[in-house]
Fold:
Amino acid sequence: MATLISHSPAETEALGERWGRSAESGLVIGLTGELGAGKTQLVKGLARGLGITTRVHSPTFTLVNEYGSGRLRLFHLDLYRLETPDQIHAAGLEDYLQPDGVTVIEWAERWPELNAERGTRNAEARRAYRRVKIEPVGENERRIAYEDSGA
Ligand SMILES: Nc1ncnc2c1ncn2[C@@H]1O[C@H](COP(=O)(O)OP(=O)(O)OP(=O)(O)O)[C@@H](O)[C@H]1O
Ligand SMILES: [Mg+2]
Structure:
């Protein structure tokens, strides 16, 4: 588990940008953190690092925003409005866990399989998964912890 303190929105974005530049197709990133923690801020940087020039904002009326103009496709999911595992399953989002490109998920802790599969050793679970937790520790400070598992 790597931990760093971000001191500004720009610093959080810069972290996402680095991840975007080095991302390989199939990467899934799960973001956890309260309202206003900085999840979308990180996604903005991720998009930029992938070479996406479109303005990134959280999907609101849809569950997924897809950005196709970069080096790899970016699928941006926000599960905030899906409160129960049943709602998540009914939404049929499984394909986004094997992306042709990169998937980033806000409120990832709401998706039971995403967390459960990390512990298993079967073939499908060998995708690259980066679990990220963002915690406000001051007005402009955020503790960002992340850990990779899988391929
Ligand atoms: N170090 C920092 N990193 C990221 N955001 C910061 C930081 N300091 C202040 N902020 C501010 O915190 C807010 C983060 O908003 P953002 O939309 O990214 O949060 P979120 O986690 O996506 O929230 P939501 O759950 O509502 O989608 C922004 O207004 C941003 O300017
Ligand atoms: Mg957000």
Summary: The chain has a mean pLDDT of 92.
